[in-house]
């Protein structure tokens, strides 16, 4: 009887939610009801995923934040930084969602990366990412141990890299015209930023091996100058609602999360 009243109350609240949230709750509700009955029998509680923010009627889930925190180990822009917080992860997700919505809206088909591009970038991670070098990710055993230690799978890494390449391609097509990265800038980044990340006694990759990725990072930094105004405008025009008060303050801080892309 209690379960029935709970379902009726929840269904009444669905009509008051945005369409995307209502759909999510409607899908999750039968699972919740079933789990509640089972939990009553077993005496245990069951937790389901929850919506923490909505961006233009598109839900961001608590599990999305956890995924971003786990995958941040693969992000070259976070090298040498402290572990990002849940608030920072939500900021990145909001920015990423706005960008991906624009990609779909403007039908940028050319931004879809090819499978060989994704495979190439995953190979670069295994051979060049400092955290990977320490455990010898070039070997199958080392790569497997690295993924397991960060609760990742090869499929999740490939999806992460595919999404990243799609966004980078979109930004490049839209904003990079006229931007050039000088060889001296690449060499300085290699010497002052990348090399210090490798442990003593561990041979780092040569400048030639990583120059293209360094150029990508530097390009992103310069593109951000143009990109910030565009993204800030998307935020002003969009409907962004944070449903978790613990995350709300950071989410209003601007487009800083997009710089991690």
Q: Which properties best describe this structure?
A:
3-stranded antiparallel beta sheet, disordered C terminus, about 260 residues, mainly alpha, Triger factor/SurA peptide-binding fold, about 5% strand, disordered N terminus
Architecture overview:
The chain has two domains: 1-48, no CATH class; 49-260, Porin chaperone SurA, peptide-binding domain (Triger factor/SurA peptide-binding fold, Orthogonal Bundle). 64% of the residues lie in helices and 5% in strands. The protein has eleven helices and three strands; from the N terminus they run H-H-E-E-H-H-H-H-H-H-H-H-E-H. The protein has helices spanning 2-14, 19-42, 62-71, 86-106, 115-128, 130-133, 140-149, 154-175, 183-194, 207-237, 245-251, and strands at 51-55, 58-61, 240-242. A hairpin with a 2-residue loop joins strand 1 and strand 2 (58-61). Helix 1 packs antiparallel against helix 2 (19-42) and helix 8 (154-175) crosses helix 10 (207-237).
